[in-house]
Amino acid sequence: MKLACQDGLVPGDSLEEKLDRLAAWGYEGVEFWGSDWLVENAETVRQKVEKAGLTVSTVCAGYRGSLLDPDPSVRQQAQKDIEARLRAAGQLGAVGLIFVPIFGGPRLPDLSPFRSALQLEDELLLLYLERLAPVAEREHTLLLLEPLNRYETHYLRRVEQAVALCEKVQAPGIAVMADLFHMSIEEASLPDAIRAGGRWIRHVHLADSNRLLPGWGHTDFRSAFAALKEIGFTDFMALECGVPGDPRETLPQAASFLRSQMT
Ligand code: LER
Ligand code: MN
């Protein structure tokens, strides 16, 4: 289990300064937002990350459009952007690209009794996942399905639902990421959900129950980490949370706190 942090949480006037700080504060990886800038500068960014002694853990979303929109041009935009970010993730040596199927409510129509909006979403998403998984595999990276909590999406909300999608696609380019904040809202038990996710889980987002830094809320990280150990998880866990206080003090503190919960 390796610790990473989203680049946007780290103070610094340059990318080099941010990366040097992360390394000095006890982090092994960095997660980048999937901006156009990152896509266009993947090779340079990789060199800077390596120079700091870090690894790019993941690329987080950043694509425009939506694969589950009724407008074909909106779907095409999403497919094109996701493919470009998968290429960038491969160039960066990242484990994968984090992908949320849809934010908010459904955009497809309810065609009951033929198909409900949810059934249409399931079928359409499966079709796109079958197209995107081989792209991820070709780029030596993963498309990481991220379930969100009920206030952010109506669709993919629990780890077992993401696993079910992966099992249907059955391709090496697809996997699941587990965000402990969303899970603390949607799952009955963090360790049980992690055990059910098993080998499909290839990335983790870390935030406490209040979406602040781990250690600032009441999430039981120790039992979640014990379950991650049980499933043989060796990938990155990246901070995605609010940073209270002075990050120059609280980000190193969070790394120490998290390591204390791993033993
Ligand atoms: C959104 O709440 C989230 O957790 C992100 O990782 C999705 O881009
Ligand atoms: Mn997340």
Quick synopsis:
The protein has 263 residues and is an alpha/beta fold.
Describe the secondary structure blueprint for this structure.
Blueprint: E1 2-6, H1 15-24, E2 29-33, H2 36-40, H3 42-51, E3 55-60, H4 72-92, E4 96-99, H5 117-138, E5 142-145, H6 159-169, E6 174-179, H7 180-186, H8 190-197, E7 201-206, H9 221-230, E8 236-239, H10 247-261
Parallel strand pairs: 1-2, 1-8, 2-3, 3-4, 4-5, 5-6, 6-7, 7-8
Helix pairs in contact: 3-4, 4-5, 6-8, 8-9
The structure holds L-Erythrulose and manganese (II) ion.
Q: What would you say this structure looks like, in words?
A:
This protein is an alpha/beta fold and 263 residues long. It has a single domain (2-262), classed as Divalent-metal-dependent TIM barrel enzymes (TIM Barrel, Alpha-Beta Barrel). The protein has helices at residues 15-24, 36-40, 42-51, 72-92, 117-138, 159-169, 180-186, 190-197, 221-230, 247-261, and strands spanning 2-6, 29-33, 55-60, 96-99, 142-145, 174-179, 201-206, 236-239. Strands 1-2-3-4-5-6-7-8 form an eight-stranded parallel barrel, surrounded by six helices. Helix 1 (15-24) links the parallel strand 1 (2-6) and strand 2 (29-33). Helix 4 runs parallel beside helix 5 (117-138), helix 6 packs parallel to helix 8 (190-197) and helix 8 (190-197) packs parallel to helix 9 (221-230). The chain is globular, with a radius of gyration of 18 Å. The termini are close together. 43% of the residues are buried. The model has no long low-confidence stretch (mean pLDDT 98). The structure holds L-Erythrulose and manganese (II) ion. L-Erythrulose is lined by residues 60-61, 98, 100, 146, 148, 152, 179, 205, 240.
